[in-house]
Amino acid sequence: MHHFSKRATAAAICLASSAGASAGVGFETADGWKYSTDGWIILQAHKQNGDSPDTTGFRMTSGTTPSLIAFNVTAPAVDGMTLSSRVGLYINAQSGEGNFRNAGNVGNTGAKALDPREIWAKLSAPWGELVFGKAYSIYQGEPVLADASVLAGGLTGYDNVNTTNALAATFNAGYMYTNFNAGLRYNSPQSAPLTFSVGVYDPSQVRNVFAGSGADRTNSPRVEGGAYFRHQDGGFKLKVYGDFTWQRASHCLTAAGLACADDTVSTRGVSAGATADVGPFNLHLSGFGGKGLGSVLMQDLDALDVDGRERKSRGVFGQIVYRPTAALSLRYSYGRTRIDDTAASQGHLAQSHIAGAYYAVNRYLTVYGELANSRFSHNPVFQHRTDTDYATAGARFMW
Would you say 174 and 289 are in contact if contact means Cβ atoms under 8 Å apart? Predict the structure, then answer.
């Protein structure tokens, strides 16, 4: 079950360092072209009980990750090099205006909105890999890959049950979601124990959507990189990593529309962690720290204060998975993120606990249940403390 879940998670994130998703349906032509399709359908019932009406409700949704259908093409090898490509189309099951709202089955419903998160090509050669297109970024990809909720339940963004955003796994606390981005990435040869990746990406505006401040002009790409060490000895597997991100944006304006103290803001962050398999246990521990990154979605929600100053944030995420049988996985995770106060904006401490059970009925069908709690010392959506309990039951069909 753990191997199956990790393979599925790798497909979900589609980190460019991997060889690509494991295809379920495909064929090969006589001259060596390969075509395949893979994907999953996810649906879950999700009940929140919060300490305010805005954090209490019931939804039936696609879960942390939307359902997916993906298409893969690999060309015949030429001069020792292979070109492959992937297009992944994501879709949410819930009804409503836009992708993620439950405003009723009217208008342009979420079930009609395709989200093309993955559109990339990869050149593989003995000297490594070049990946160009839209794929998941390098920074903090490892905790996303490790999180058992990435293809299951998790939490809603800032505990807002009717949020216009999708469910956001444990991104409320412990690590940040850096998103799928257009860019060019190099991966060193993956056969070595020590590997590295470096990439340049389409930059983002740096904002505080709650306060209205932001820097919206980008004159250079975002740069990210990571180093990874893998070791295996019998039933023991270890992966240790460290990564970073850096970017600038200019034309910074305050919430009042005035010029910030500095016209240019810089965002920077580092993270590190380890994942280990020891017999029936899988353990993960990671942490991050940064400035101008924010606390949930990198650079997009609360990276700046009201006056346009970069905010400091840091977090830690830990998870233990126990596999009593090949089909059953039991999980507990804890995450916490702190974003500091500034002279103009109040910070917060966010904490999350998730316990889950994931059962593989067969190689294609998994059912799961999760219980969770999320706490904010000062929830930036509702401007007060929140304490929210979650109960989720769902199913996933994967091919």
Answer: no
Residue in the structure block whose two tokens are 């983002």: 204
Q: What six digits make up the tokens of 271?
A: 């993270």
Residues in CB range of 211: below 8 A, 6 or more apart: 255, 302, 304, 305, 306, 345
Buried b (16+ CB within 10 A) or exposed e, 278-302: eeeebbbbbbbbbbbbbbbbbbbbb
The CA angle 281-44-149, to the nearest 5 degrees, is 30
**How would CATH label the architecture of 51-59+126-398?**
Beta Barrel (2.40)
Compute the distance between CA of residue 337 and CA of residue 163 in angstroms, rounded to an integer. Answer: 20
In 3-state terms, what secondary structure has residue 301?
coil
Rounded CA-CA distance 8/284 in Å is 17
What does the domain layout of the chain look like in residue ranges?
Answer: 51-59+126-398
> What span, in angstroms and rounded, lies between the C-alpha atoms of 251 and 203?
14
- Dihedral sign for Cα 163, 321, 144, 374, please: positive
Q: Which element (helix H / strand E) includes 318?
A: strand 312-322
Task: Name which of 187, 138, 136 is nearest 14 in CA terms.
Answer: 136
| CB-CB neighbours of 343 under 10 Å | 8
- If one counts every other C-beta atom within 10 angstroms of the C-beta of residue 80, the result is 9
CA distance 373 to 353: 5
The secondary structure of the chain in percent helix, strand, coil, rounded to multiples of 5, reads 10, 55, 35
Q: Give residue 95's pLDDT.
A: 56
- Chain-wide mean pLDDT for the chain? 87
Instruction: Read off the pLDDT of residues 223-272 as tens digits, 9 standing for 90 and up.
Output: 999 999 999 998 899 999 999 999 999 999 998 999 998 999 999 999 99
* Model confidence, pTM: 0.89
Condensed to tens digits (0 to 9), the pLDDT of residues 80-116 reads: 999 999 999 988 776 554 444 455 444 444 455 678 8
Residue 173: which residues within 8 A CB-CB, separation 6 or more?
315, 317, 335, 336, 337, 350, 351, 352, 374
In whole angstroms, give the CA distance from residue 395 to residue 380. Answer: 32
d(CA 245, CA 331): 30
Residue identified by tokens 């060193």 is 188
- Residue 13's H or E segment, with its range, is helix 2-13
